[in-house]
Amino acid sequence: MAGVAEAADDKKRSSDSRSLLRDLAHELRDALSPVSASIDLLRVRQFEADTARVVAERVERGLRRAFTTLESFVLAEQAEGGTLALAAVPCALADILAATREVLDTGIRERCMLAADGQGPAVHADRARTAQVLQSVLQHAGIVALPTTQIEARAAAGAPPQIRVSCHTDARFEPEEDWFVTFHGPGGGLALRTARRIMELQHGSLEMNRQAGECTFVLSFRPVGVQYSESPAPRAAAEPPDQAVAPRAVRLLIVDDNAEVRRAYREALLPLGYAVTEAAEADQALGRLDADAPQVALIDIHLPRINGYRLAQSIRARMGSAVRLVMLSGMSLDPTMRDLSREAGFDDCLDKMAGPLALHALLQGPRKG
User: What is the pTM (predicted TM-score) of this model?
Assistant: First the structure.
């Protein structure tokens, strides 16, 4: 079973790598084809001075976009593989907004209103990287926003603290779910897929909500000052800077094909001290094991293609007792289901209707086995 899981993991990584390379090739061609055409223009015009000045400007723009594209794809590869170094330290949301304002292009900066009440809530984040994330969100919002309206980015206290980016949308340009699938953003910049992954690596999240005529992006952060659950695993040799000021969060992976369920659990568990990552199906969950090393896996049984029982067996085979497996059931937990869960390697069972607080209470106690 472990061999099958590893093969599925390798296949997914290989597929992602090919997709990333295809996107990179497409973006570089887009950036450099005007350069090639401009050189031909120089030849046709016999390298006359006026033409040379125009071509120089085009070459400069094309090369600038190519370099931006390469940087964003390197960042994407690191974020996807979990190797991106992040200096997550306590900072105010207002500081993140200020850092974002500094990196915005003039055109999009003039359309945006970045606001916080005072300094806003204190969160754990890499200020520079999060500014890149918010820059990408604002650029995507600019694509769909009505040209006569402002794009608002506002810091909001809450559990968890958030920055909410909202705009009125142009009916001709609807937000696309594909934005969270591809590796490229506007003008070769950071993709929302990478932006979301950076937020996840900081134990936060990035979501997009759409309604008629409106679009809202929500950046949720890991708050400073919450009580964290103690981690049963030993500390790693190298800790991120923020770990010096708070106990390490429990790494929890939730596997459910219902995005609303995942969101509800994640938003409730983050302020309780959990570092939550998500997967919509088994292959995606297996692909996250090495990068995220979850200490708890909350697994729905009715998953597409590979059900939760088989997924639990695969995870147990790969991670042994290092992970606590909790079955998330949408059906009543009768003796038959509990027996099946034990046979599959689950430590505990939870009725989906019980909710995140019941899960938190369950995890404070010993494994039932």
Answer: 0.56
